[in-house]
Amino acid sequence: MYKVYILLVLCCVTNSAYASLKDNNGWKVGVSFGTADTLTEITGQFNQAESASMTNVYGGYDFNKWFGLEFEAGITGDVAENRASLDNAHYFVMSFAPKISIELGSRFLLYAKYGLSYTSYIEEYDGAVCTFIVSSVSCEDDIQSWDGSGTLFGAGAQVSIFDGLKIRLSYSKTEDTLTSEDLIRRYSGNVEASVEQVNLGIHYQF
Predict the structure, then answer these.
(1) Which residue from 38, 71, 93, 108 lies 20 to 30 Å from 146 (Cα-Cα)?
(2) Full 3-state SS string of 172-205
(3) Residue range of the domain that includes 159
(4) Which domain CATH number covers 40?
């Protein structure tokens, strides 16, 4: 008889664990790491395609098993090409998007999202920019930055490891037109920017 009781207890514990694994509702926060393929172009001035590492933080709220809102912010590694005087360059990408999920079994789901993005692109050059004011000289780092808003598309697959802890493989792409408001500019015109990411993430669902 005790064997029957043990079996019943194990079944209850297993069912409870699987029930919690299926619970994808509530707040979540996590980090992800991967790669980013970037395209950066100013018509008639430069066109570069570079890849780099990508680091993100993300979070959001899932209202139920199929609908949620998600925020993500990340920065690339150096995406500078071999251009004269260019020391380094990187992207900062931020997005906010509704997310639709489809559960496939107790531990696995697929999702897609589409929303708004904000992108900043910064180039740093060798040397400094110096301004002569009467008898003094003021020097600053030689930097030009562009920023702007656009759209994001993302998709991915998520697996529940145990209660609350989940990992996911994600793909996303942002396309933005970026403008510069710097007073001293090396380049004029808008930057057409695309950042395509593939990341492995881990998050906790509260």
Answers:
(1) 71
(2) EEEEEEEECCCCCCCCCCCEEEEEEEEEEEEEEE
(3) 2-205
(4) 2.40.160.20
As a whole number of angstroms, the distance between CA 10 and CA 192 comes to 58
Number of compact structural domains in the chain:
1
Q: Return the ∠ at Cα 170 (arms to 164 and 174), rounded to 5°.
A: 130
Which of the two residues, 206 and 138, has the higher pLDDT score?
206
| Measured distance CA(156)–CA(202) in Å, rounded | 13
Positive or negative: CA dihedral 177, 180, 196, 38: positive
Helix (H) or strand (E) holding 135: none
Residue whose token pair is 């251009």 = 83
Report pLDDT digits (tens) over 116-153. Answer: 999 999 999 886 655 555 555 555 568 899 999 999 99
- Residues in the chain, how many? 206
**Residue 126, amino acid:** D
